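Review form for a predicted model. The reviewer records the input and the model, then writes brief findings.
Reviewer: anonymous (R2)
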Amino acid sequence: MLRGVAVIAVLALSLLAAPLAAEAQQAAKVARIGYLSTNLAANPHMQEAFRQGLRDLGYVEGRNVVIEYRDSEGKLERLPALAAELVALKVDVIVAAASNHFALAAKQATRTIPIVFAAASDPVASGLVTSLARPGGNVTGAAVITSELVGKRLELLTQAVPGVSRVAVLWLPGALGERTEKEMLKDADVAARALGVRLQFVEVRGPADFDLAFSDMTRARAGALTVLPSNMFLREHSRLVDLAAKHRLPAVYTVKEYVDAGGLMSYGPNVADLGAPPPTWTGFSKAPSPATCRSSSPRSSSW
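Model under review:
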Protein backbone atom coordinates (compact mmCIF):
# COMPACT_ATOMS: atom_id res chain seq x y z
CA MET A 1 0.00 0.00 0.00
CA LEU A 2 2.79 2.43 0.87
CA ARG A 3 4.70 2.04 -2.38
CA GLY A 4 1.39 2.28 -4.18
CA VAL A 5 0.88 5.74 -2.73
CA ALA A 6 4.38 6.65 -3.88
CA VAL A 7 3.42 5.57 -7.41
CA ILE A 8 0.39 7.83 -7.23
CA ALA A 9 2.76 10.63 -6.27
CA VAL A 10 4.71 9.98 -9.46
CA LEU A 11 1.47 10.12 -11.44
CA ALA A 12 0.53 13.38 -9.79
CA LEU A 13 3.89 14.94 -10.52
CA SER A 14 3.78 13.80 -14.13
CA LEU A 15 0.53 15.69 -14.55
CA LEU A 16 2.06 18.78 -12.97
CA ALA A 17 5.05 18.61 -15.26
CA ALA A 18 3.75 20.42 -18.34
CA PRO A 19 2.74 23.69 -16.66
CA LEU A 20 5.99 23.71 -14.75
CA ALA A 21 7.98 23.37 -17.97
CA ALA A 22 6.34 26.45 -19.41
CA GLU A 23 7.60 28.44 -16.45
CA ALA A 24 11.07 26.94 -16.34
CA GLN A 25 12.76 30.25 -17.03
CA GLN A 26 10.66 32.03 -14.44
CA ALA A 27 10.65 31.80 -10.68
CA ALA A 28 9.97 28.22 -9.63
CA LYS A 29 6.29 27.54 -9.20
CA VAL A 30 5.08 25.98 -5.97
CA ALA A 31 2.96 23.00 -6.94
CA ARG A 32 -0.36 22.64 -5.14
CA ILE A 33 -1.83 19.15 -4.72
CA GLY A 34 -5.28 18.37 -3.40
CA TYR A 35 -5.34 15.17 -1.32
CA LEU A 36 -8.87 13.83 -0.85
CA SER A 37 -9.13 10.93 1.56
CA THR A 38 -10.72 9.73 4.79
CA ASN A 39 -9.69 9.16 8.38
CA LEU A 40 -6.31 10.80 7.92
CA ALA A 41 -5.50 10.72 11.63
CA ALA A 42 -5.95 6.95 11.73
CA ASN A 43 -3.62 6.35 8.78
CA PRO A 44 -0.67 8.76 9.11
CA HIS A 45 1.64 6.28 7.40
CA MET A 46 -0.31 6.69 4.18
CA GLN A 47 0.21 10.44 4.03
CA GLU A 48 3.85 10.00 4.97
CA ALA A 49 4.33 7.49 2.16
CA PHE A 50 2.79 10.00 -0.23
CA ARG A 51 5.10 12.74 1.01
CA GLN A 52 8.09 10.41 0.75
CA GLY A 53 7.18 9.67 -2.85
CA LEU A 54 7.17 13.38 -3.53
CA ARG A 55 10.52 13.85 -1.78
CA ASP A 56 12.03 11.07 -3.89
CA LEU A 57 11.16 13.18 -6.92
CA GLY A 58 12.49 16.39 -5.44
CA TYR A 59 9.26 17.82 -4.06
CA VAL A 60 9.31 18.79 -0.38
CA GLU A 61 6.13 19.83 1.35
CA GLY A 62 6.40 23.42 2.51
CA ARG A 63 9.27 24.17 0.13
CA ASN A 64 8.20 23.62 -3.47
CA VAL A 65 4.88 21.82 -3.00
CA VAL A 66 1.79 22.51 -0.92
CA ILE A 67 -0.58 19.66 -0.09
CA GLU A 68 -4.17 20.59 0.67
CA TYR A 69 -5.60 17.74 2.75
CA ARG A 70 -9.33 17.13 2.90
CA ASP A 71 -10.72 14.42 5.17
CA SER A 72 -14.26 13.06 4.79
CA GLU A 73 -13.98 11.42 8.24
CA GLY A 74 -15.83 8.39 6.95
CA LYS A 75 -18.82 10.42 5.73
CA LEU A 76 -19.39 10.05 2.00
CA GLU A 77 -21.96 12.85 1.99
CA ARG A 78 -19.13 15.32 2.68
CA LEU A 79 -17.24 14.48 -0.49
CA PRO A 80 -18.92 16.89 -2.95
CA ALA A 81 -18.22 19.88 -0.71
CA LEU A 82 -14.64 18.81 -0.01
CA ALA A 83 -13.92 18.27 -3.72
CA ALA A 84 -15.43 21.68 -4.48
CA GLU A 85 -13.11 23.25 -1.89
CA LEU A 86 -10.07 21.81 -3.65
CA VAL A 87 -11.28 23.08 -7.00
CA ALA A 88 -11.86 26.55 -5.53
CA LEU A 89 -8.28 26.52 -4.25
CA LYS A 90 -7.13 25.97 -7.85
CA VAL A 91 -4.96 22.98 -7.04
CA ASP A 92 -2.83 21.63 -9.88
CA VAL A 93 -3.92 18.02 -9.37
CA ILE A 94 -6.31 16.12 -7.12
CA VAL A 95 -5.27 12.77 -5.65
CA ALA A 96 -8.28 10.66 -4.65
CA ALA A 97 -6.59 8.43 -2.11
CA ALA A 98 -9.50 6.20 -1.16
CA SER A 99 -12.40 4.46 -2.94
CA ASN A 100 -14.21 5.20 -6.19
CA HIS A 101 -16.52 7.58 -4.34
CA PHE A 102 -13.66 10.03 -3.80
CA ALA A 103 -12.54 10.06 -7.42
CA LEU A 104 -16.15 10.37 -8.62
CA ALA A 105 -16.72 13.34 -6.33
CA ALA A 106 -13.61 15.00 -7.73
CA LYS A 107 -14.65 14.24 -11.30
CA GLN A 108 -18.06 15.80 -10.70
CA ALA A 109 -16.38 18.90 -9.29
CA THR A 110 -14.02 19.53 -12.23
CA ARG A 111 -13.49 18.51 -15.85
CA THR A 112 -10.16 20.30 -16.21
CA ILE A 113 -7.99 19.67 -13.14
CA PRO A 114 -6.13 16.34 -13.47
CA ILE A 115 -7.42 13.67 -11.06
CA VAL A 116 -5.37 10.64 -10.01
CA PHE A 117 -7.20 7.84 -8.22
CA ALA A 118 -5.52 5.28 -6.00
CA ALA A 119 -6.71 1.68 -6.15
CA ALA A 120 -10.16 2.29 -7.61
CA SER A 121 -12.28 -0.80 -8.17
CA ASP A 122 -13.38 -1.28 -11.78
CA PRO A 123 -13.04 2.39 -12.85
CA VAL A 124 -14.55 1.68 -16.26
CA ALA A 125 -17.80 0.25 -14.86
CA SER A 126 -18.03 3.05 -12.29
CA GLY A 127 -17.72 5.70 -15.01
CA LEU A 128 -14.38 7.12 -13.89
CA VAL A 129 -12.64 6.36 -17.18
CA THR A 130 -13.59 5.28 -20.69
CA SER A 131 -11.07 2.43 -20.74
CA LEU A 132 -7.94 1.39 -18.89
CA ALA A 133 -5.79 1.80 -21.98
CA ARG A 134 -7.07 5.30 -22.82
CA PRO A 135 -8.95 6.73 -19.84
CA GLY A 136 -10.10 9.90 -21.62
CA GLY A 137 -11.01 13.13 -19.83
CA ASN A 138 -9.04 14.35 -16.85
CA VAL A 139 -8.94 11.16 -14.74
CA THR A 140 -6.38 8.36 -14.49
CA GLY A 141 -4.79 6.20 -11.81
CA ALA A 142 -4.42 2.68 -10.44
CA ALA A 143 -7.24 0.22 -11.09
CA VAL A 144 -7.89 -2.67 -8.73
CA ILE A 145 -10.32 -5.11 -10.34
CA THR A 146 -10.90 -7.68 -7.63
CA SER A 147 -14.06 -9.66 -8.40
CA GLU A 148 -12.12 -12.57 -9.87
CA LEU A 149 -9.98 -12.82 -6.73
CA VAL A 150 -12.87 -13.89 -4.50
CA GLY A 151 -12.74 -17.44 -5.82
CA LYS A 152 -9.01 -17.68 -5.27
CA ARG A 153 -9.40 -16.54 -1.67
CA LEU A 154 -11.99 -19.26 -1.09
CA GLU A 155 -9.70 -21.82 -2.66
CA LEU A 156 -6.83 -20.80 -0.39
CA LEU A 157 -9.14 -20.89 2.61
CA THR A 158 -10.26 -24.46 1.91
CA GLN A 159 -6.63 -25.47 1.58
CA ALA A 160 -5.73 -23.81 4.87
CA VAL A 161 -8.77 -25.25 6.66
CA PRO A 162 -9.26 -28.80 5.35
CA GLY A 163 -12.80 -30.06 5.70
CA VAL A 164 -14.45 -26.67 6.07
CA SER A 165 -18.01 -26.88 4.78
CA ARG A 166 -19.46 -23.46 5.50
CA VAL A 167 -17.75 -20.10 4.91
CA ALA A 168 -19.08 -16.72 6.01
CA VAL A 169 -18.70 -13.84 3.55
CA LEU A 170 -18.59 -10.43 5.21
CA TRP A 171 -19.53 -7.59 2.87
CA LEU A 172 -20.59 -3.94 2.86
CA PRO A 173 -23.26 -3.00 0.28
CA GLY A 174 -22.28 0.00 -1.82
CA ALA A 175 -18.57 -0.26 -1.12
CA LEU A 176 -17.54 -1.09 -4.68
CA GLY A 177 -20.40 -0.17 -6.98
CA GLU A 178 -23.41 -2.26 -7.94
CA ARG A 179 -21.92 -4.00 -10.98
CA THR A 180 -18.67 -4.96 -9.26
CA GLU A 181 -20.51 -6.21 -6.18
CA LYS A 182 -22.87 -8.36 -8.24
CA GLU A 183 -19.93 -9.90 -10.09
CA MET A 184 -18.08 -10.48 -6.84
CA LEU A 185 -20.98 -12.19 -5.11
CA LYS A 186 -21.68 -14.28 -8.21
CA ASP A 187 -18.02 -15.31 -8.50
CA ALA A 188 -18.02 -16.26 -4.82
CA ASP A 189 -21.08 -18.48 -5.31
CA VAL A 190 -19.63 -20.16 -8.40
CA ALA A 191 -16.31 -20.82 -6.67
CA ALA A 192 -18.04 -22.16 -3.56
CA ARG A 193 -20.04 -24.65 -5.61
CA ALA A 194 -16.88 -25.86 -7.32
CA LEU A 195 -15.13 -26.23 -3.97
CA GLY A 196 -18.08 -27.98 -2.33
CA VAL A 197 -18.66 -25.39 0.38
CA ARG A 198 -21.72 -23.40 1.35
CA LEU A 199 -21.61 -19.64 1.78
CA GLN A 200 -23.25 -17.48 4.41
CA PHE A 201 -23.44 -13.91 3.14
CA VAL A 202 -23.30 -11.56 6.11
CA GLU A 203 -24.15 -7.94 5.32
CA VAL A 204 -23.12 -5.02 7.53
CA ARG A 205 -23.71 -1.30 7.18
CA GLY A 206 -21.13 -0.04 9.65
CA PRO A 207 -18.84 -0.97 12.56
CA ALA A 208 -21.82 -1.03 14.93
CA ASP A 209 -23.02 -4.17 13.10
CA PHE A 210 -19.82 -6.18 13.60
CA ASP A 211 -20.66 -7.91 16.88
CA LEU A 212 -24.05 -9.09 15.65
CA ALA A 213 -22.55 -10.18 12.33
CA PHE A 214 -19.99 -12.41 14.00
CA SER A 215 -22.62 -13.79 16.36
CA ASP A 216 -24.69 -14.71 13.30
CA MET A 217 -21.69 -16.50 11.82
CA THR A 218 -21.24 -18.52 15.00
CA ARG A 219 -24.93 -19.43 15.21
CA ALA A 220 -24.87 -20.57 11.57
CA ARG A 221 -21.81 -22.73 12.37
CA ALA A 222 -19.53 -21.06 9.85
CA GLY A 223 -16.13 -22.73 9.86
CA ALA A 224 -14.18 -19.93 8.21
CA LEU A 225 -14.50 -16.37 6.96
CA THR A 226 -13.64 -14.29 3.91
CA VAL A 227 -13.88 -10.50 3.99
CA LEU A 228 -14.72 -8.60 0.81
CA PRO A 229 -12.99 -5.30 -0.08
CA SER A 230 -14.15 -2.14 1.67
CA ASN A 231 -12.43 1.00 2.89
CA MET A 232 -14.51 0.82 6.04
CA PHE A 233 -13.33 -2.72 6.69
CA LEU A 234 -9.75 -1.63 6.12
CA ARG A 235 -10.14 1.19 8.64
CA GLU A 236 -11.50 -1.34 11.12
CA HIS A 237 -9.10 -4.14 10.17
CA SER A 238 -7.67 -4.63 13.67
CA ARG A 239 -11.13 -5.03 15.17
CA LEU A 240 -12.19 -7.47 12.46
CA VAL A 241 -9.08 -9.59 13.04
CA ASP A 242 -9.77 -9.58 16.79
CA LEU A 243 -13.40 -10.61 16.28
CA ALA A 244 -12.40 -13.43 13.94
CA ALA A 245 -9.96 -14.71 16.56
CA LYS A 246 -12.54 -14.36 19.34
CA HIS A 247 -15.05 -16.43 17.37
CA ARG A 248 -12.35 -18.88 16.25
CA LEU A 249 -12.89 -18.20 12.57
CA PRO A 250 -9.84 -18.67 10.35
CA ALA A 251 -10.10 -15.92 7.77
CA VAL A 252 -8.70 -14.78 4.46
CA TYR A 253 -8.54 -11.03 3.83
CA THR A 254 -7.98 -8.71 0.90
CA VAL A 255 -4.72 -6.95 1.83
CA LYS A 256 -1.74 -7.59 4.07
CA GLU A 257 -2.67 -4.96 6.67
CA TYR A 258 -4.99 -7.59 8.14
CA VAL A 259 -2.14 -10.07 8.38
CA ASP A 260 0.07 -7.43 9.96
CA ALA A 261 -2.64 -7.09 12.63
CA GLY A 262 -2.60 -10.84 13.29
CA GLY A 263 -4.94 -12.21 10.62
CA LEU A 264 -4.34 -15.65 9.13
CA MET A 265 -3.72 -14.72 5.49
CA SER A 266 -4.57 -12.33 2.68
CA TYR A 267 -4.72 -12.50 -1.07
CA GLY A 268 -5.28 -9.49 -3.24
CA PRO A 269 -3.86 -6.68 -5.32
CA ASN A 270 -0.23 -6.04 -4.55
CA VAL A 271 -0.48 -2.27 -4.53
CA ALA A 272 3.26 -2.14 -3.86
CA ASP A 273 3.73 -3.62 -7.32
CA LEU A 274 1.54 -1.22 -9.24
CA GLY A 275 2.79 -0.67 -12.74
CA ALA A 276 5.25 2.16 -12.39
CA PRO A 277 4.92 4.94 -14.94
CA PRO A 278 7.56 5.20 -17.65
CA PRO A 279 10.67 7.20 -16.73
CA THR A 280 9.69 9.95 -19.18
CA TRP A 281 6.64 10.67 -17.04
CA THR A 282 8.90 12.37 -14.53
CA GLY A 283 10.46 14.60 -17.19
CA PHE A 284 8.79 18.00 -17.17
CA SER A 285 8.71 18.41 -20.93
CA LYS A 286 7.23 14.97 -21.65
CA ALA A 287 4.41 14.63 -19.15
CA PRO A 288 1.35 12.82 -20.55
CA SER A 289 -2.23 14.03 -20.51
CA PRO A 290 -4.61 12.17 -18.18
CA ALA A 291 -6.70 11.30 -21.24
CA THR A 292 -3.85 9.22 -22.68
CA CYS A 293 -2.18 8.16 -19.43
CA ARG A 294 -2.89 4.44 -19.14
CA SER A 295 -4.58 3.35 -15.92
CA SER A 296 -2.61 0.57 -14.27
CA SER A 297 -3.93 -2.61 -12.72
CA PRO A 298 -1.82 -4.34 -10.06
CA ARG A 299 -0.90 -7.96 -9.98
CA SER A 300 -2.14 -10.29 -7.26
CA SER A 301 -0.02 -11.47 -4.38
CA SER A 302 -0.50 -13.56 -1.27
CA TRP A 303 1.10 -13.26 2.11
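Findings: The longest helix spans residues 2-22.
Further findings: Residues 18-23, 272-288, 292-296, 298-303 have pLDDT under 50 and may be disordered.
Recommendation: see findings above.
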